[in-house]
Amino acid sequence: MANTTTNTIVTRFFISGRIQKHRPTQFLGLHASFFNKKPPLIWCELSMSNFRVINKTHRFKTRGEIDFVDLSDKIQEEVNRSGIQNGIVHVFAPHATGILVLTENDPALLEDIKGFLEDLAAKHANYAHPSNAHSHLRSLLFPPDKTLPIVNGRVEFGTWQSLLFVETDVYPRERTIIIQVIGES
């Protein structure tokens, strides 16, 4: 690849959370010593002129305790609408009793997950919090967010993966997820 000189600023994102700006000539002509530095374990190069962030919310209803709602198609739909070709999609469920999981959407497996959650935090145990402590305890075990890569306009799920919202509360609810699509168009 030939080095080109432009006035574009390129941003490197590191897992450590640091952001550093460099001119492309400093960035594209990397020397082996660059990779010996800590903490950059993973880095990517983005041209900031095509960089976009799109925020969407999606509302849906659950049917009650340990209900699974497949969000995979909705996430891909929002990525398609955004025009982002390469980047990430971050999905966040702003609820104390709802979680997001990446797993196979198979009825037998979902029954196993339901049993697993019930075994981890039994519904009728002696809790200090009234009525739904077990719902909160189940939610403590799994994160309320997931981040997935977007490559060539497609969300990169594993072969059998689906993104599922799991209702851990005791009643049917109207729920919201925040979908943030970040990347280059």
Q: Structural class from helices and strands?
A: alpha+beta
How far is the first residue's CA from the last residue's CA? 22 Å
> What is the level-2 CATH architecture name of the largest domain?
Sandwich
Radius of gyration, taken over Cα atoms and rounded to an integer in Å: 21 Å
Biggest β-sheet strands, sense, barrel: 5 strands, antiparallel
Average predicted local confidence, pLDDT? 82
Give an account of the 3D structure.
The chain is α+β, with helices and mostly antiparallel strands. It has two domains: 10-43, no CATH class; 51-184, Jelly Rolls. The chain is 23% helix and 35% strand. The protein has five helices and eleven strands, in the order ββααβββαββααββββ. It has helices spanning 24-28, 32-36, 72-82, 107-120, 133-140, and strands at 10-13, 19-22, 45-47, 51-61, 67-70, 86-92, 98-103, 145-151, 154-155, 162-167, 174-184. The strands form three sheets. Strands 4-11-6-8-9 form a five-stranded antiparallel sheet, with helices on one face. A three-stranded antiparallel sheet has the order 2-1-3. Strand 1 (10-13) and strand 2 (19-22) form a beta hairpin. It is elongated, with a radius of gyration of 21 Å. The two termini are 22 Å apart. The model is unreliable at 1-32 (pLDDT under 50).
